[in-house]
Design goal:
Blueprint: E1 31-33, H1 35-41, E2 47-51, H2 55-60, E3 61-63, E4 71-73, H3 82-88, H4 90-96, E5 100-104, H5 109-124, H6 126-129, E6 135-139, H7 142-149, E7 156-158, E8 160-161, E9 168-169, H8 172-175
Parallel strand pairs: 1-6, 2-4, 2-5, 5-6
Antiparallel strand pairs: 3-7, 8-9
């Protein structure tokens, strides 16, 4: 899959433009939920679910919570550095007011950064703290682990974009159909 390997130092695993002192602590991540618990939370009405992947990934496939369940939000990002900017917008903050916030990504890495950023803002910024966010959660192991626990797809619709030769794949029980 990788004909040449190049190793180089980076400031951030996922580039949110928050390196050094601006970086949220890795101890501030959202609560990790196993796929079965995350699946249940998606059915709760006081919840929003943020897709922290890039928009082209969301176009291929995404969670579609049940009616009267979580409200799905696609930040419409072209690259990860747009997430902090999106999170600071007044219209974004209104979508999060009084809600539980679920986040997900392909394998869980982007959620580590995104959930830590939101929790840091809740703790340190008065306007974000005033939103009364009821909790920040992330899907443990990402979409890949969800597919292992829900081979027929659960609340997932479409395919999951992956960064390997598969390009995109559906849940195992759907792909074999």
């Amino acid at each position: 899959a990788f004909p040449k390997l190049h190793a180089f130092k980076v400031e951030e695993i996922v580039n949110y433009g928050l390196a050094g002192v601006k970086a949220p602590s890795i101890h501030m991540t959202g609560e990790h939920l196993e796929p079965a618990d995350y699946h249940k939370k998606m059915a709760e009405s006081d919840t929003v679910i943020i897709d922290v992947r890039n928009h082209y990934e969301a176009n291929i496939g995404k969670f579609q919570p049940p009616p009267n369940g979580a409200k799905y939000i696609d930040p419409m990002m072209r690259k990860s550095t747009e997430f902090p900017v999106w999170l600071d917008k007044p219209e974004t903050k209104e979508m999060l007011r009084g809600k539980q916030v679920l986040m997900y990504c392909t394998g869980g890495v982007r959620c580590e950064r995104a959930s830590a950023l939101l929790r840091t803002k809740i703790e340190n910024e008065e306007d974000t703290k005033a939103l009364g966010i009821k909790g920040v959660y992330q899907l443990q192991g990402g979409i890949d682990k969800y597919f292992r626990d829900f081979p027929e797809g659960g609340w997932w619709r479409g395919k999951n974009y992956v960064f390997d030769k598969r390009f995109a794949h559906a849940p195992p029980g759907v792909e074999s159909l």
